[in-house]
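Incident log, support desk, overnight shift.

02:14 A customer reports that sequence design results differ from what the structure should imply. Their input is reproduced verbatim below. On-call engineer (initials T.W.) acknowledged and began investigating.
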């Protein structure tokens, strides 16, 4: 039983019409009908009763729908954690599920003719602290390249990355705070050190952190 089959099953159960469900899911009606038939073959019992153009859940279908909803609630709670740590194949299936959830939410307030103009929905997983640490390293590397163009070297130890992650990490706002923290706590501090050291030549700057502060040391 595939995730897409359950997705189709829930849509048909909710709308009670194969044509409307196909439009909501952006699939052809024959493909949707085939998927539902295969699902019924896999579970070994019919799930719907066909009545004058409508497709209605029978008792078996209601039992399956209840089980699927419980599974969906469990998956909703676990998706953020799984998406951070699961293997690629699992994450790909989670992305499929999250895309379905996003499209379902959009369909509640957008007209079908507008939804038909949506080419694709891309779901982004929340950044982990490890992701954040890697991004902080990349941003500092960009600063180092700019410093080299001015004839100065920039280096830092792991404590600086720890500081940036601790002060800026946010699942809600992503890496936006990180750029501001680097500008305020590191770039501004380096600028002050360079200006104060104009009497001599500053050839290198080293960054380190202790507690809640970043220290800038010029050479």
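02:41 Re-run completed on a clean worker. Output:
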């Amino acid at each position: 039983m595939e995730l897409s089959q359950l997705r189709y099953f829930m849509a048909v159960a909710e709308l009670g019409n194969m044509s409307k469900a196909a439009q909501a899911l952006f699939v052809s009606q024959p493909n949707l009908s085939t998927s539902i038939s295969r699902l019924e073959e896999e579970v070994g019992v019919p799930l719907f009763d066909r009545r004058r153009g409508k497709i209605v859940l029978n008792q078996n279908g209601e039992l399956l729908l209840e089980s699927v909803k419980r599974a969906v609630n469990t998956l909703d709670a676990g998706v953020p954690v799984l998406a951070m740590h699961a293997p690629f194949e699992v994450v790909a299936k989670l992305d499929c599920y999250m895309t379905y959830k996003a499209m379902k939410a959009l369909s509640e307030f957008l007209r079908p003719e507008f939804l038909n103009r949506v080419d694709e929905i891309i779901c982004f997983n929340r950044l982990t602290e490890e992701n954040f640490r890697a991004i902080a390293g990349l941003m500092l590397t960009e600063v180092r390249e700019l410093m080299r163009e001015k004839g100065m070297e920039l280096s830092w130890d792991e404590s600086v990355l720890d500081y940036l992650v601790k002060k800026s990490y946010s699942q809600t706002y992503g890496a936006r705070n990180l750029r501001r923290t680097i500008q305020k706590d590191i770039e501004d501090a380096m600028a002050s050190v360079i200006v104060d050291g104009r009497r001599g030549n500053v050839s290198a700057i080293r960054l380190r952190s202790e507690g809640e502060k970043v220290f800038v040391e010029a050479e």
